[in-house]
Every structure is written in structure tokens, then in C-alpha cells.
Amino acid sequence: MTPSDAPQSRWSDLDRPPLNVPALRRGLLRPGSLWTALDVVGSTGSTNTDLAARAADLTEGTVLVAEEQTAGRGRLERTWTAPARSGLFFSVYLTPGDVPAERWGWLPLLTGVAAATGLARAAGVDMALKWPNDLLVTVEGQERKTGGILAERAGDGVVVGIGLNVSLRADELPAPTAASLALAGAVSTDRETLLRGVLRSLEHWYGLWRDADGDAAASGVQEAYAAGCATLGKSVRAQLPGDRTLTGEAVAVDGDGRLVLSTGGGPLEPVSAGDIVHLRGVAGGLT
Fold first, then answer.
1. With CB atoms 3.0 to 4.6 Å apart as the test, which of 98, 138, 201, 274 could cross-link to 238 if both were Cys?
2. pLDDT, position 241
3. Which pLDDT belongs to residue 69?
């Protein structure tokens, strides 16, 4: 990891200035806050990997941010790369020890709700969720991925990572299905404002969920996720473990966070893990 605490000119890159670490700490590390430590590194392979390696020594609420990730990971071991300071790449350590472990699967979905609501306020962009952990924006009438979430067990807790494209230009996108907040017309692409907005929103939703002993319905998390989930109501194809494929309409997210599919000719099928593709109409065009 390359530390980012050293004094650095705020004018070294007018389009993509470095994060102001002291200002972030002043704004987030308040008495009584969930957030207890915040560090920013210039470059690292993966903030999730770094926090997981230190899990035994971490306190809940530790935040690690990277100005650049060289080996960022998404679900299914997909890579996540972007130019330095073009996005937000960070991980947090949470220890919901009083919540039954079988409910911890809601943490990535809860983080999606928190990120979407926090970014909608801070960036002024309509956000949507693709089950289970993608953040979508609309660019030129098309849903495109602008962020992703990855949660991993580590020690006595969970490391939750978020990768978000903020200022990427069209020629910098990793795929035609990707986007950035800037391309979606964000009113602000100030990364400090966005990071504070997401972390404060995550503190709010995590607090509600934990106070309800991880009950997604009682905490309001299940309802909020369903309200913001672009997958619901769509025809989808689910690529399941073991090379099994299901096609049907996504009709609900159940109390365990599973995507429930109606396949038209039998019982409803809950999907707990898999790669979901949104389909367009009978022709099956991809979104």
C-alpha cells in the first residue's frame, strides 16, 4: 500500500484532485459515530484484501480508501479497474456480532440501499439496484453499471467493499455496459462529498438493521431494497452454480435476501447466488 497522508498539492490534478484525509476524518470520525478509523492510500491491490488481512486487529467502523486499485475484485472474481482518483474505491469493517449469522447475508444488499440513497442525495442522480449488488444509472436511456459491492467474511466480522465510477469519461469505461456518475449527469462529482454521503447513509441503514436484530422487514431494509431494485418485474436469466440456468420473471426479494423467480410453469424459484442478466422482451436482448 502507498500511504496518502503526506501533504499533496490540491492543484496537482484539477479534474481529479486527491482526497483531503484530515477533512474526511473531521467530518466522519465523530463521538458516537459508527466510523472509528479512516485511512487513504495512494494505490493498493484491493482494499477488501487489505482489511481482511488485518481483521483480527481492527475495530468496527474501520474504513480504508484507495485512490487507485490495481486488483479490485467484484463478484465471481471479476476485476474492477479505473484510472487513479476517477472513482471511489473503499472498504469498511463491520462486526454485527449480536445479529444472527444467518442474517448477515443482508449486508451487501443493505449496503446497496445505503449507497443508492446516499448517492442520490449527494450526486443528484437517480440510482437503481441490480440484484444482488450492482449500482445502476441511466445513460442515454440505458441502464448501465456504475458501481458494485462485495462482502466477505473476515475474522469476527465482514469486510464490505464498494467500487464506484465517478468521473470516468466515455473513452475510459471498461465496457459499453458501464457508466459513471459524470456520464449520468451528476450535479456533483466531488469525491469527498460522495464518500461522506455514502458512509453516513450506511451508518443510518446499518443502525436500523442492527437495532432490529438483522430483521430486514422490521428494519425497513427489505422494503427499501425492493423499491429501488431494477431487477424486480423484469424477465431475467439466472446463471446458477453448477452450470444451471433459470429464466423467468423476478417477482420478489424474500426475507433471506434471495431473488424469487416465477418461471411460468411451476413453483416459485428462490435464487440465493448466481449471475443475473436482465432480458428485454421476448427477443431476449441484454441489459
1. 274
2. 86
3. 92
